[in-house]
Amino acid sequence: METQLLEVFRTVAHLGSITAAARHLRFTQSAVSRQIAALEAEVGTRLLDRLPRGIALTEQGRALLPHADAVLDRLSAARRAVDELDRLDAGRLRVGAFATAVAALVPRALAAFRAAHPAVALSLVEGMTPALLDRLTAGDADVAVVSSAPSGPLDDSRFDLHHLLDEHLLLAVAADHPLAGRRTVRLAELAGESFIAGSPHAERTLLGDSVAAGFRPRIDIVAGEWTGKLGCVAAGLGVALIPVLAARGTPPDIALLRLHPDDEPVRRVYAATVAGRSRPPAVTRFLAHLDQAAAAFTTPL
Amino acid sequence: METQLLEVFRTVAHLGSITAAARHLRFTQSAVSRQIAALEAEVGTRLLDRLPRGIALTEQGRALLPHADAVLDRLSAARRAVDELDRLDAGRLRVGAFATAVAALVPRALAAFRAAHPAVALSLVEGMTPALLDRLTAGDADVAVVSSAPSGPLDDSRFDLHHLLDEHLLLAVAADHPLAGRRTVRLAELAGESFIAGSPHAERTLLGDSVAAGFRPRIDIVAGEWTGKLGCVAAGLGVALIPVLAARGTPPDIALLRLHPDDEPVRRVYAATVAGRSRPPAVTRFLAHLDQAAAAFTTPL
DNA sequence: GGATGTCATGCGCTACTAGCATGGCTGCGT
DNA sequence: ACGCAGCCATGCTAGTAGCGCATGACATCC
């Protein structure tokens, strides 16, 4: 029972005439007549009584009509559903992101996205890069904002990596620190400084890469949150490295210096999607907003 | 969006593979591949991600799938509905019949019909022949059991008349009446009898036709119901004509005589349906039961 | 690294279906 | 009362859509 036959049948039933239905559907009368005949042959019964003036539904025709209506209505609903998805008038977007990205980059992109496509349901999960990638492959997230270092290159061929930005590291020092007036600084100059880091083991901190190059920071204070680190820095307890992405709204008692390019560990930030799978429209669109948000973090310094 | 495409799409989605779906649907892989491509072209989006091992639904595919399921399910429901109607596993039968037919003929036919097709909803309306025919044309009844005389020939070309029987008239006399032992009687012999009839005007009674032939019955008692008439007859108040159809379960104090064929007014009983319209399956089947029931009223005398 | 699975696609053929024309039928209007 | 106009069915023809048979590209598994 092809839908066109049902469409024709519905029109004929509604207009009460094969000829009228043919005109309405831009067919010839013969075509419609034959389509009705085909439908009747398929269901094995007469659906219409041919009267001298038009047609009338038989019992079976009356039984079929509401089903035909329902089928055709659902069909257009199906089309609408897919179209809405394409036009981002519906659907969802499940984003995963690592902690620092949730500080500003991802929220800004999400805000811009929601302003443009308010009908799309958003969700955001913070997590570590490996966990985020697991979510991706499990189908629990549509896109994950992840970073490459220090956990090693994540060029796993199972993911499409859309490069967003290279995250620069800033050195936070107290506003009255001798280095506070400088624009850039070299690691070597910091040999005597006390570092406030996320882990007592230098290898697991933002300086992990530099350790291999021979630089061993002195870590006296361990703090997990950026706000805590900055508080220690402001109090003159030491210096800290913070990624640009986390350096939003730095208080005035803190000065931020850029590291010399040669000393800077490379932390590449990507938006990852599952390789081989086509990106849902919401993801494609969201990537553009991510790009825009990322641009705001690469130019200012 | 033709239903075959949806069927193919559903199978592919369910089996996770175009090749598997092709096997399942008895198509070649190329055919299925092309049908999916056609569906995708029609909705304007990719519905499947082609993976090295089978396929996976895209966001749009996931959105379409439940609709496809619903459409196909409804489609088979439609087919079932029509089939049930044809097999008399559903539907309704609305019968109209004149008063005497409701006494026994129609109830017996209905009972037999219901025994054979319990799923069909039955309804029965009693009425006069013209009103019944109006119900038919108005579409409020499916079949009407009507009688031709005395209201004149009803060969209106708007109806298909299925002849059921010629209703014979019986003369009811008291068991101790002089005529009680006879098998047949002529009208001329009844000139002196007192008639119990439905109307004081002989023209409007069952003898209406005979009036034209010169027979004028003496009507002393008017009774509308057959039971009332028979009561009067049994009490020796007179004689009465009753149609065979109403002579069911006659009490023992009544004797029934047949009129001489030449004196008998012809009352032809038909099952009428609207001309030009195909008969619903229930009606066709019911006519057979009516024929059977009618046979029981023609043979016994 | 060959073998085997996946899906896409060019090619030829068939079969469906649309249009055109005609014919039969019925009811309307003159 | 009779022709006419409208309705639907159908024989015929042409275009095309869709199938199967190949083959090709690609990735995985043994």
UniProtKB/TrEMBL annotation, chains A, B:
State the InterPro entries in the record.
LysR_HTH_N, LysR_subst-bd, WH-like_DNA-bd_sf, WH_DNA-bd_sf
A cellular-component GO term for this protein = protein-DNA complex
Q: Does the keyword Transcription apply?
A: yes
Query: Could you confirm whether the keyword NADP appears in this record?
Result: no
- According to the entry, every stretch annotated as the HTH lysR-type domain falls at 1-58
One Pfam annotation reads: LysR_substrate
Q: What is this protein called?
A: LysR family transcriptional regulator
Q: Which organism is it from?
A: Actinoplanes aureus
